[in-house]
Amino acid sequence: MPFQIGEHDFLLHGKPFKIISGAVHYFRIVPDYWYRTLYNLKAMGCNSVETYVPWNLHQPQPDQFYFDDNADLVRFIQIAQQLELYIILRPSPYICAEWEFGGLPAWLLNIPNLRPRSNSPEFLTPVKTYLDHLLPLVTPYQITRGGNIIMMQIENEYGSFGNDKDYLRAIRQIMLENGVDVPLFTSDGAWQNALEAGALIEDDILPTGNFGSRSNENLDQLQLYFLRHNRTFPLMCMEFWDGWFNRWKEPVITRDAQDLAACSKALLDRASINFYMLQGGTNFGFWSGCSARGDTDLPQVTSYDYDAPIREWGEPSQKFYLLQQVLKQYPDASPICEPLLPHFFRYADLPLQQEVSLFSTLDKISFRHDSPHTQNMEQLGHYHGYILYRTFADSHSDELKLRIYQARDRVQVFNDQQKVTTQYQHEIGADIMLQTPNDRFQLDLLVENMGRVNYGGKMLAPTQRKGISGGVVLDLHFHSGWQQYVLDFTKLHQIDFSGSSNSANPSFYQFKLTLEQAPQDSFIDTSTLGKGVIIVNGKNLGRYWSEGPTCYLYLPAPYLQQGDNSIIVFETEGVRPTALRFSDKPIYKTLTSQNL
User: Fold this and answer.
1) Glycoside hydrolase 35 catalytic domain: which residues (predicted)?
2) Closest CA to 289 of 280, 277, 301, 278
3) Which of 198, 373, 503, 587 is within CB 3.0–4.6 Å of 552 for a Cys-Cys bond?
């Protein structure tokens, strides 16, 4: 075997080998920059790259698979191979990764009696269908067949969710049946209960630990777990957290670079390492996930910068250069090199060209579904973004009470296209008084899915079904007769800007950027905007929100072109952008930074 797990070391062609890896998520970086990212990973001293594989990106619908553009995993593997980098592949059904629903496709929620991550046919049948499509694409690149994939993961941090070993064995069996013959591993928190629940050490599957500090203490715990089971394995931290993710309304979290370098040295003196993240990238579109604290969901920001050695936008940080000095001390490190640097440009402010209210172009950019009662996003086959629920009702009083049941995540209420209020999470269900002096009125409810929880038991909560699941009560009765408009942001080229505008309502605003030279990277300044998303030439850059802490959206040059570029802002908070501003650096709201 060209790569083996020995008693105390990993063995590459029979010789001890220290894995020095960095995490890069191909799906969070534009493909044109994969080479630069992987080159810089190697220039820092890494000999391997680790990546998750998000199921929901690759199978967006039960009968639809997607492996193009930023989902072209094979191309990413090939680029790594060109750079002589080994790959640790994590194709487990669940990835966490602060990714929407932890990588699970939301259409699973439509399957009766399904329990995610369990040894049940309701879950394992769709898992097998997915892996039967995915694994034949990557198995030819295993090191056993002349490729560069040296290990694959069975499940991710399962010990923080369940302890069903039959489930883990079922995933392993699916992998083996699809020709996986490189060593397999699990990764869990480095404490005894998590390892006992989530590892398959009794089957001689490599257990690895995830942590970001107290390197010796955590490695001692991993070693203790081996000893308790009379096994010997090389020590590895599969996720050495060099930074952290950020959430809306909270301070940016950072980690001291000198502290990271010292902890990394302590770890590398005893074990192999995977820096999580090496470059975090961006949650383009609606892919940002959500964490939970108690009964509150905490959506995460579009940026997945992670305060990593390479920043979201591809620029090496102080951590990068300090880690170079650490890694060059180890014989298995790649040769230290100067990194490839990105370049940024602040485009001139763009004047507003066209605008139209959502209500005036609704038919052009949505699909309509009628039903007696409200249906949630999953029932409508629309899993991300927005749905507008519309009904017409009669009132026999000047004021009518409205209540919305079991809705997530954020509801804007309009009475005859006039904004009434916004309810978010725990506010939803409280009484709303509608002024109804004209008997018949039009009620519109714009509901936004801000991301499903990606970690822990809250993934099983009813709140992960988005849209309106329960219903809408007027006076004391559940109202029936609903038009449901699924907003499809791939249809924005059909927007009818000849319709009426009303900046008090959710609206589309169009700007034109004309480039005579080759495009360059930039940032769109969102500090004066309210809440919404920005689409450039059909590419959804992601969410922005005035709550911060991020007040920018990263605009990679490959999303632009010479000539005319269309930029559309979908703004939901009644803010009319008369100009669109750019920046040559990221912009943050003034919130006190929080150190790890």
Assistant:
1) 10-329
2) 301
3) 587
Strands (E) across 80-200 are located at 86-90, 149-156, 184-189
DSSP 132: H
The residue extents of the domains of the chain are: 3-327, 373-480, 492-595
Q: H-helix or E-strand containing 127? A: helix 121-138
User: H-type helices in 364-444, by residue range?
Assistant: none
Residue 21: DSSP 8-state: E
DSSP state of 221: H
* Phi, psi dihedrals of residue 38, rounded to the nearest 5°: -70, -35
Q: Classify burial at 155, counting beta carbons within 10 Å of its beta carbon; exposed 0-12, middle 13-18, buried 19 or more.
A: buried
Cross-strand pairs, 171? none
CATH assignment of 492-595, given 3.90.1150.10, 2.60.120.260, 2.140.10.10, 2.30.33.40? 2.60.120.260
Nearest residue to 359 (alpha-carbon basis) of 532, 503, 533: 503
The one-letter amino acid at 558: P
User: In the block, which residue shows the tokens 């553009």?
Assistant: 69
Q: What CATH code would you report for 3-327?
A: 3.20.20.80
Q: Which fold has domain 373-480?
A: Jelly Rolls (2.60.120)
Residue 7 has pLDDT above 90, yes or no: yes
Q: What pLDDT does residue 591 have?
A: 67
506-553 pLDDT, tens per residue? Answer: 999 999 999 999 999 999 999 999 999 999 999 999 999 999 999 999
Q: How far apart are CA 379 and CA 47, in angstroms?
A: 45
**How many whole angstroms separate alpha carbon 509 and alpha carbon 571?**
8
User: Torsions phi, psi of 143, nearest 5?
Assistant: -65, -25
Tell me, yes or no, if the two domains 373-480 and 492-595 fold the same way: yes
Strands (E), 425-476: 432-435, 440-449, 467-474
C-beta separation of 388 from 457 below 8 A: no
Tokens representing residue 96 in the block:
């966490």
Q: Which two tokens stand for residue 561?
A: 């072109």
CA distance 489 to 386: 10
Position 556 pLDDT exceeds 80: yes
Cα torsion for 464, 465, 470, 473, to the nearest 10°?
80
pLDDT reported for residue 304: 98
Report whether the peptide linkage leading into residue 363 is cis, meaning its omega lies within 30 degrees of zero.
no
Catalytic residues: 157, 239
Residue 115: CB partners within 8 Å, gap ≥ 6?
Answer: 122, 123, 460
